[in-house]
Amino acid sequence: xxxxxxxxxxxxxxxxxxxxxxxxxxxxxxxxxxxxxxxxxxxxxxxxxxxxxxxxxxxxxxxxxxxxxxxxxxxxxxxxxxxxxxxxxxxxxxxxxxxxxxxxxxxxxxxxxxxxxxxxxxxxxxxxxxxxxxxxxxxxxxxxxxxxxxxxxxxxxxxxxxxxxxxxxxxxxxxxxxxxxxxxxxxxxxxxxxxxxxxxxxxxxxxxxxxxxxxxxxxxxxxxxxxxxxxxxxxxxxxxxxxxxxxxxxxxxxxxxxxxxxxxxxxxxx
Amino acid sequence: xxxxxxxxxxxxxxxxxxxxxxxxxxxxxxxxxxxxxxxxxxxxxxxxxxxxxxxxxxxxxxxxxxxxxxxxxxxxxxxxxxxxxxxxxxxxxxxxxxxxxxxxxxxxxxxxxxxxxxxxxxxxxxxxxxxxxxxxxxxxxxxxxxxxxxxxxxxxxxxxxxxxxxxxxxxxxxxxxxxxxxxxxxxxxxxxxxxxxxxxxxxxxxxxxxxxxxxxxxxxxxxxxxxxxxxxxxxxxxxxxxxxxxxxxxxxxxxxxxxxxxxxxxxxxxxxxxxxxxxxxxxxxxxxxxxxxxxxxxxxxxxxxxxxxxxxxxxxxxx
Lengths: 270, 319
Ligand SMILES: Nc1ncnc2c1ncn2[C@@H]1O[C@H](COP(=O)(O)OP(=O)(O)OP(=O)(O)O)[C@@H](O)[C@H]1O
Ligand SMILES: [Mg+2]
Known about the structure:
A: mainly alpha, 1% strand, B: alpha/beta, 2 domains, binds adenosine-5'-triphosphate, binds magnesium ion
């Protein structure tokens, strides 16, 4: 078997085991899928009003604004948070050591992890969209160009956040502390990136901080897909879709380097 | 020309802060040999084994395992090696069959997973998830994962700890089976009878140093040291005075014992003495060499005494 065919076979086998593990762990399923769903339901129910536009423009129902942000946040959850937590636990409980003792190439292990992150990203997008459309009347875009942006954000966002999750395991010191180390930055980013509220409400200096990280750009680009241009002008000056995709692509490349430099295959011994 | 050794290490040193886990260890294990490492808790067995597996870096010294430096060797080398850790986490939600088959898929020429599961005595448990297995059953999964790649060289760090007697025998059978195929085994154990039953050679490691090394029957001077001759005089032998052999003594239970460096001569003289009294046999005759356990405990105690003496010295004494 050639090298790349062997790699593809092993990465696929890893993905299969990752998926089995994922779907057999109810806690993880709950936090991954139910939490964003709960957020969509609760926020869309509480803030059921409209966002008023300039004269001549129809008002936008709040769920239409909230759902794309929640999709961005859901993608970060299943990529960054899930990978960082999952890998750290495997690292500190000695599961990674077991794999490291076999001829499984490291790259196949990571390919399996990133593939899992992509599969779960697609699933969470489908789940949130389905609820948004069915329960809260969210309307989907018609133009293919918008769907192309959607796909690009999904790809670049999931990719860069997966790699960031891998790199982030470096600062997790034990299996038990993993969620506590992973969740706070994710939570803070959700607030300052305007996921739960309108971005224009976030103070300028926090917006500046949020602009460094992928989540703000993911939410912004996804909103551009679902919302009229005047919201982009109100909230962001303009949608800046090109800039958003560039920033995400840059994060993708940077996170790949970061993951490569910072990851330790096995830890806890010299 | 002799085959190159499976394992060759020289001057291995590993320090953890003030602890010298390995203080200069030389080890050579021939291809096809079963080698057992014995030693008290914290002696450095796991440290040594994991350096040879490539999971720890020695502070000094060098190691070659199957001709490569374990710290640098790649997947092709890993494919020739099996590892059973002293402890490692489990893929809790996967079943026995899934895990063993998954690991088999990493190797170029694995054993049949179903056969491996049977070899370690887990047949009937294939569909159970690992988190539901007992401690000993989990240990068997460890073993299955260690051998499923059909390695040339297997590292087993306390493989039978936690196994029931039958499980231990099963593992012994697996190790013998592997050895019969010309494979090399390096195992650690706290069970001296296990080392004796399996190993071609054993080393006793104490405080990071080899205190003795050799065939289990000969280690620590077992073949040359003093043996104990005992017999149970009855009938005429009980009434007659004992022959004038130095060191001969009566035990409280009525037996007679003699610790001697020349047991053959002692038995010959005792036989002549008995014959002269009209008894052709020495009832209950035994010649006992020190057991591996005797040798082990003697070495460990000697080192403890040495360490205590060193600790009693004023500061500045050599460590
Ligand atoms: N990662 C580590 N960090 C600090 N000290 C360590 C580390 N690993 C081992 N040591 C120390 O090195 C010494 C040797 O430990 P090692 O695990 O090799 O012993 P062992 O012979 O395998 O013991 P056991 O029979 O209990 O398994 C011990 O004093 C231990 O405390
Ligand atoms: Mg040990």
